[in-house]
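Morning!

As promised:
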Amino acid sequence: MKILVTGASGMLGAATARALADRGDEVTVLQRRTAGLGLSEILGDVTDPDVVHRAVRGQQAVVHLAAKVNVTGTEADYRRVNVDGTRTLLQACRAAGVQRLVNVSSPSVAHSGSSLVGAGAGPADPQRARGPYARTKAEAELLALAADSPSLAVLAIRPHIVWGPGDTQLVGRIVARARQGRLPLFGQATALVDTTYVTNAVGALVAAVDHCAPDDVHGEALVVSNGEPRPIGEFLRSIARAGGAQLPKQHVPVAVARLAGAAAEALWSLWPGDDADPPLTRFLVEQLSTAHWFDQRRTREALDWRPAVGLDEGFAELTRTLQR
Amino acid sequence: MNRRARRPGGHVGLPAAKPDLGRCPDLDPAWSRLVDVPEADGSVHRWHILDTHADRDPADRDPADRDPADRDPADPDPADRPALVAGTMLCVHGNPTWSFLWRRFLAAAPADWRVIAVDQLSMGWSERLPAPRTLAERVADLGALTDRLGVTGPVVTVGHDWGGIISLGWALQHREQLSGVVLANTGVDLPVGSRLPGLIRLAHNPMLLDATCVRTPAFVRGAAALSHPALPRAVRAALAEPYATPARRQAVGDFVADIPLETDHVSRPALEAIATGAGRLDVPALLLWGGRDPVFHDGFLADLEQRFSNPDVHRYPHASHLVTEDAPRTAADTWRWVQERVTQGPRTQDRARRPHPQPAPEPVTWTQDDLPWAALLRRADDPAPAAAEIRDTVTTTLSFADLERRIAATAAGLSRYGLRPGDRVAMLVPPGIDLTIAVYACWRIGAVIVVADAGLGVRGMAHALRSARPRYLIGITKGLLAMRALRVPGRRIGVGASGAPAVVGGWDTDLAALEADGRGRTLPARAPADTEGAVLFTSGATGPAKGVVYRQSQLKEQIAKVADIMRIGPDDRLVAAFAPFALYGPAMGIAAVVPDMDVTAPGTLTAPALADAVAAIDATVVFAAPAALRNVVATADSLTPVQSKVLHRVHTVLSAGAPVPLALLRRVQQLLPDAELHTPYGMTEVLPATDISLAQIEAAGPGDGVCVGTALPGVSIRISPLDELGRADGPLTDAAGVTGEICISAGHRKERYDRLWATERDASRNPGFHRSGDVGHLDDQGRLWVEGRLQHVITTADGPVTPVGIEQRIEDLDRVRAAAAVGVGPAGTQQVVAVVVPASGSGSRRRLADPDLTAAVRRASPVSLAAVLVVAALPVDIRHASKVDRARLRRWADRLLAGERAGKP
């Protein structure tokens, strides 16, 4: 299949492009700076219609990961990349006769700060989504799913907290902060949080490309995770230990954490983007002190997919790469 | 006009208007309609009703849009012509409620049933009439309404409170189409001069009537405030909404005034006709009963049970007067009843009445030899010791001959006192000689003993006894006092020293006096019959205790099964340290001794006390609860050499009631080296069902769950497999390796649950089998492995998971003293969580286990764990101190893992 992957400079985009190419797909990647993947590459911005039309021409499928994800910037910056970029891409896909679009989204598009316990993939809701990232991603997902039609099948895939070897964002920050003794835990740190080992997120996206079709799965949003939620404290501890760091013993009461800055931003800014350290916000503390885990039954059934790498296996692999 | 009729002063007619029902919880506004009903005198009254078939003809939905005069009132509206319905359920509310009460009955209706829930005239959203209605008028009103609605074909009436009486009035006037009667917390037993309870008595007083019912909303609010826990605010608001002003509340007062407790009351004849007629109705009847109703209390239930021939009864122990609110399942239970008793024809009705015949054929003739105490009769002249008890080191012994004489005398005395066959007698006597005599004397008369396990606590026992409603209580002063304080009815027969406490405790007589009175007398002759013998209440894992009814043949079979397991021959003697079985020695024809302990608290049995009991009658067999054995092992150091030696005489030890850990059995074996240790499995409803010895447990080795051995002779065990949501609804199987609910068929299976119609149907829905609520599997050698309780099954995205196997593997770790596995999250996608008690204790307040313990527990667990939590102790039940309260633990883990404050489990 001829496939365009946008945003291939990040961990997930790069790994997905590589996985598709490895199994024989003809992959082109589109991002601002070279991804160095040895694949056919178009450099440019997803907000530039000329670039996007050129990239989409002749493609059968598009995996759309390009987005503004970091926490700094004005709402207009987010809107330009996430909403306008997606709109541009959709127009180009329709013009070029692309048949499949896998729009990579985020579980945060459907939820505010409340606890998620075995939650399903609710509809994206820009009104309730918190922060400019989630808000604009929600709008983008609604646009993408609205474009679902007999000629263009659209699927929205929402991986939750992707991590793995080569991840400088989430893993790198947790390890660095743990080493500095700047990674305290909030409250009992028992809130269950779903995460996704990168190989599994890639597997789900590849399965999504295969199943995204008018006569298969289309027009819906699916949350992807390992299906193995862990207490946030245990997850952070496992990542830190993989990097050879110990987690400080101190636990910060949730109320205190809401006021004091610490490590939350590292977890929240898990997506590829620039390196600006976002400030700790009450929203982030909430994310780290409330449960976030999902019902994976529909996803697994729709994509005929299961995570290939268990969490513990993932931690072991991470340990090997970090301590090599 | 009769002087007792209420004068119409202060009444103002108000037309009915279509209410806005949008804010009423669970009520579909589409059911709401106004109906104009012509009366015999030519006037027309406008009713508000809820009707599942309201939308049949949209033009009819709001008669306010049309002039009723356009239509011939005698001609049923086209919309209401007999529709193709299997039947109609006619629901009548009481005072001061309205059709809202029945919303769940409408919501749960099958498509081919029409449900009509009325707002009585001057009540709810119906028209306010300028004068009060009498009972007879209200019955006639209802008939006029059903005529107008064209209700033909089978009708099931449903009535609550005063609506029950009115619905019965309608039923008596529509016998040809009546197919069933459902009554909820109502009553017809209102003799002239009866004393009304609290608020009603106040309201019935003419001086206060207007103040409580009309001028203030006290009565309206009071009726909705009886529930524990309180009804949701929205429900209370909905109940009160039609009665917002004094003008709208007039009829609330009228209803109270219409309670005809005076001979010359205008409604007295109508009430008497209904009360008498109710007993002649020959249709199936269901009584739904809130057990905490201070108004229509259990006495009314007992009266209705007597009036109807063999009614089905479901008593909801925690529900109050508004039983349909406090127990929302009343709707589903009623529809299930309609389906089984009304929809299915009369031929199947008989079968439904005794739904599941026991697999073992009943003896055709029941002779003296069939009686449970036949073995005792055979030794009636034997001077050898039969019963012994040790209290404060003093041993009291009674020979078989004396025991038989005293039972006979007590039975004769009880009979002269008024005890009749079938009467229920609650036993509040600690195990020992007095209890043995009382129980066998009652059985001899044909009475039914009611036994509530002391593990229920005093309140739990009172709950149980109130639901069983004994006519007599036989008890020690302490027990009788407590039950009197907790409003358990029945005449009180004291046991033990009389005197001041006896007077305070309200003894009506005492057992010793009855025995003396009966000496030398004989019982009235009675053909031996397999009558009901016992209602047993044991502390359930969750919820209020259920009364389990046994017939004498079932008790006898149970005793025989236990005797087989204990390998009892005529020369054996039993130490009975387990409350229910302390009674069974005489029935087995062997001597039994109760050791010096508090039998209601098994953990009080010490090793020396056990040895002394063995020595007292040279016992060969011991029956003790696991908690008792645990304490015996713990106190083994205080045995004298002589006592240690005495324990060698025991050839069998039986322990039941809760799982017995292997390690405990091994230590017991060291103390009683010559005994075979047996741990039968069963439940109050079928005990015992299987048996296994320590040697067999060792041979079986570890597995998924606790191996409880093979089925006893005459017992069959099947598995009802679990589906992906952990439900056990499929057909039964005996295939090896299939996990599901354990279903047991046996001759000594219980007769039924007492006053729990829906629960009984649920547990016995596979003919001949009891659904145990336990889950497990059979192995290829036919051994049963118990994996936990059905309600503790964890439903993961990969299918159901049972807790016990996981817990065993984790408890194998040296670092872990105890473990429990629970599921968090929504059914079908739950995550498994291990809660462990570390062997080293839990010094820290941290709930997450340390990294090493976490890793070890995850490795040991056969399933993926979301979290490993640490606690200082697992929450356990009171009775056995060994059944982990997993439901409570699950709620705790749910809160904690959602990031909420959770406190201690």
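The interface with chain B takes residues 115, 117-118, 187-192, 227-231, 233-234, 237, 241, 251, 289-291, 293, 295-297, 300, 310, 312 of chain A (CB under 8 Å).

Hope this helps with the figure draft.
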